[in-house]
Amino acid sequence: MIRSVHAALIACVLLVALAGCGGGGGEKAASQTAVLKFTAIPDQNTTLLQERFAPMAAHLSQVLGVPVEYVPARDYQASVEMFRNGDVHLAWFGGLTGVQARAAVPGARAIAQGKADPEFYSYIIANASTGLEKSDDFPMGIRDLTFTFGSESSTSGRLMPEHFIRTLGGAAPAEFFSQPFGFSGSHDKTVELVESGRYQAGVVNSKVYDRRVAEGQTDPAVVKVIWETPTFADYNFTAHPALEEMFGAGFIDKLQAALVGMHDPQLLSALPREAIIPASNDDFAGVASVARDLGMVR
Asked: Residue 101: which residues within 8 A CB-CB, separation 6 or more?
């Protein structure tokens, strides 16, 4: 009996010692097994985004020395919720979703943006059958057409176009349009709906439209650009403050440097952008102001 008790005591001591040894390296072990998960608003075909962001995940993993995984988002608001809940730690947001995400997560930082993003713009497009042509003036003729925005949470497909309709068209969309308007859910879908005639006109991210034309997916003689909006700040990479706990102090600055240091056209084509430049929360103050005016952020 005494021998059994003695053996049990030795076993307990060994277990405590092993636990103590494991505890000393627990933080290091956790950082070694933690995964940096990132997502992107699904403003384009989701399958296409999955394919294009995979090389970026591999590149960031190599540069930063930590596992990096791309996680697709179901829709715009899902990307914000994933970030708010800590399910992802980095996101390629639009201007509005970035503002919403940073408002929901104190300490979140916009750290990078495309070279074109400080002066982004959208196109109002129309099916050629409408007879509308491109003009420098706001196209008042769209008020009598069937019209679709993109996602309800899109900066370039809803927020800023609605702002311009209100300020230049003189009324909120519900009063401006003589027919019910719609929301396509993504920029690619907007172009496809206008091309098919399901909607006579719509508003689309200029880069998505230009890409589709360049790749032969859209005929500019069928889906015409009739107006180019004034510029506004848009897309950005926003980092979750939990990254500093996961990978150590200063990691977000390292991540920013890794993103800005991406020069490979294949990696940049996921966005798509010619180059990445630093960003800060202050860069999106104008978007935040419009979003508050329209009740889309607190």
From this structure: 79, 80, 83, 84, 91, 93, 108, 238
- Which residue matches tokens 């057409």? 145
Q: What is the pLDDT of residues 21-55, one digit of tens each?
A: 444 444 444 445 899 999 999 876 667 788 889 99
- Which residues on neighbouring strands pair with residue 204, listed in sequence order? 123
pLDDT tens digits, one per residue of 132-177: 999 999 999 999 999 999 999 999 999 999 999 999 999 999 999 9
Distances in whole angstroms, Cα of residue 64 to Cα of each of 48, 60, 216: 25, 6, 37
Asked: is 121-228 a CATH 3.40.50.10140 domain? The reply is no
CA dihedral 22, 34, 55, 110 (to 10 degrees): -140
CA 71 to chain centre: 12
Half-sphere exposure of 203 (CA within 13 A, CB side): 29
Average pLDDT over the chain reads 90
Backbone angles phi, psi at 249, to 5 degrees: -60, 140
The CATH class of the 33-118+234-293 domain is: alpha beta
> Can you tell me whether residue 40 is helix, strand or coil?
strand
